[in-house]
């Protein structure tokens, strides 16, 4: 049972700590970061004493404090935790704690729940902070109005979760991107003012901030102290880090985020409730890999996390596009099974009128002109070959050229003045309408049930501009996301074994909100391994590899036109939930043999790749990459040494393999299953020759500390190094 906590509550787990003093009117945050250890009553008194800042000149006459729910009432002049108004009044909130409970978990961590009351607006605010065994601190708020409150609706303009940062956190990392180049990192120094990333696309988007990290100057993959947050929401978002000259109490700045609310979107009448998206916070003393390690552990601990082997996928898109022909697809399925594919996914083009992307969306019936006997002949053939069968859908969208749009134009999101321009020849359906929701659930239920689908690739190919419900033009972007979540939940409830992939023009909807209901993401529409090396490296900053779709494409990439070697393409695709996206019926026997060897290598290595710790080396030259996965017990590792472009240096020098123990001994070898890469050297380092011929034994001090002189690869090449510890 929850117990009334002591005056200071400390949640501790996995080397991290979140300490709060239950002061009045609002509890203040004493510490978030490295574990302070088991503190005695005297120690706790000292922590409280040193949490009081100086009183500044020309300032408040009392020391400022950074509370759990900072507002101007605390003297906080930065972005408030919440703001809004009650018919133009009650704009200066003064929340006060009415209740607090604390629960400690035996495995570490626990939960702190604090209830605040704001009398002027009639708001009740319940804050919940949960620290899990991996050190991830999850925070959310429930904002409600009592049944007896003033009948005037309270217009909530914003609600954010904010945590303080110390003075040494002065460098900011977040992400931007575009279609086929998602999660492109950008860094900047933290200065006075607010660094805010607002998302107004109705989904996180290809330029999603994704993870906002702030650390000590020069923090890298393996080094430096870092604090980070992720907003687990699949719609409009706001991330921010803010530093004021006077600081944030004894802290320097504030980090946080939440949903970006449109004007008039959340109007709380008596009895209404709004729940903020969950914000996940992580601290690491070991750079970005330490942050990734915490998030991967957090996700792998979920009850719904995929436990079995992640099946090797073939997706038909870049093989046939809209040219659906049963004979051609049967032949493709035969080739797929022969090379070791375990899941066959039929992509866009199977439903009524869908011969191009200009028509058919919304009409979720199999096109009888192309599939006179339905999808059954293909699905049955696929299953007879030992593969399961999946299908592409885009339920949230509609083409104007569709029976659905002609019959129900009122189902389309848009203002009463008329619809704006299409994007990708499509509009967005208003999922918040019960009739739209019912139609989509019925359609999806029928498809999954009729064809015994194991998998849905769930796409979302345009942004939500003018996401309002006519008549009245009320904003519904928030309601759209909530309806999406309900729809995903309902489909999964009816078909418990079904897996769903979150796709949005590639990687435009990659967040932990949608991943509560889906089983993997499509990281990018771009399979070019040069681009994918970076895209995948940064996608696994948040997600473990088994949740990240990673496919081998054709020699000439369909999105960039770049020609790459098959060894580079296959080595790159290993480090995720692997698949194939090319026309196998056009491959030579030699190409098929290499894909067969690669699929066998994937099946051999996926127990390591999908459970181990992701590691990345800090290299001074972005033309070269070294990343890998190390087993949690340190017994095995697989590394990828890759070059994406040329550089001025002729030698790479000694390069330590991250994640190994200096005091252990190891055997290593170069995996030649995929063939050897192309080198730019007259002769390789001697160790490489030995490791190609067989196992080479080396001390951990050489591998992990001194490092190996790495071979010089030509651009667009990769080498796989396997390591086993000698016990």
UniProtKB/TrEMBL annotation:
Domain of life, source organism: Bacteria
SUPFAM superfamilies cross-referenced by the UniProt entry: (Trans)glycosidases (SSF51445)
Enzyme class: hydrolase
Keywords: Glycosidase, Hydrolase
Hydrolase is among the record's keywords: yes
Region (Disordered): 77-107, 180-202
Name of the protein this chain belongs to: alpha-galactosidase
